[in-house]
Design brief:
alpha+beta, 11 strands, Jelly Rolls, disordered C terminus
């Protein structure tokens, strides 16, 4: 049984997450472990970089069991309405305010198709509880505030693709993901662009 009072360093978190395959990991356990994860300000700061046209997905680490990312949002930046293709998710707000919206299929729609309708919305700040998405959940994240937003995300397993939904159409789009790369960054992120710290390859954001 986990000891809730004991914080986890990143190496401890990696060990705990490797104890069982992501396919058998419960969302409750992921949320519990993620709540205990303590990341240094230096590590998070090295992954804070904003993109020009959409929010940034900056990789911290990835293992066969999970991935850890820092997402950076300018005011007005928003994700699509999407699921995580079977992956679990835990989200912590590092700074700013996150708008989190959950969705469900409209009456008569199948569980794996649209259209969808919004069922809830909440605003989450850095001193609030964590939020997340269980298998089969559908959500949308946004920065609806006037200040920059930084969030920390754990996906188990690593989120390589997702399904994008619509409130107006039954069409569901399968979309591959990519991490933010240096060419995506805005001018304020010049220092990170020059070092290349924390960025990697692969395919559009959700």
């Amino acid at each position: 049984m986990d000891a809730p009072s004991r914080d986890l360093r990143l190496d401890d978190f990696i060990c705990e997450m490797s104890r069982e395959p992501a396919s058998s990991l419960s969302h409750e356990r992921l949320m519990g472990l993620a709540a205990r994860l303590q990341l240094s300000g230096e590590l998070v700061g090295s992954r804070i970089a904003f993109a020009k046209d959409a929010y940034a997905r900056n990789l911290v680490c990835r293992t066969p069991f999970f991935e850890l990312l820092v997402l950076c949002w300018r005011p007005g930046q928003v994700s699509t309405i999407h699921d995580h293709a079977g992956a679990l998710n835990a989200i912590r707000v590092y700074s700013g305010e996150l708008t989190s919206r959950t969705f469900r299929p409209t009456r008569g729609a199948s569980s794996s198709a649209g259209p969808v309708e919004q069922e809830a919305e909440e605003r989450v700040r850095a001193d609030a509880r964590m939020v997340g998405l269980d298998r089969g959940g559908i959500h949308q994240l946004a920065n609806t505030s006037s200040e920059d937003l930084v969030t920390i995300h754990v996906y188990a397993p690593a989120l390589m693709e997702l399904h994008v939904y619509s409130t107006a159409s039954a069409v569901v789009e399968r979309r591959r993901l990519r991490y933010t790369v240096a060419d995506d960054l805005d001018e304020i992120s010049t220092a990170v662009r020059e070092t290349g710290a924390g960025f990697g390859p692969d395919g559009p954001r959700p």
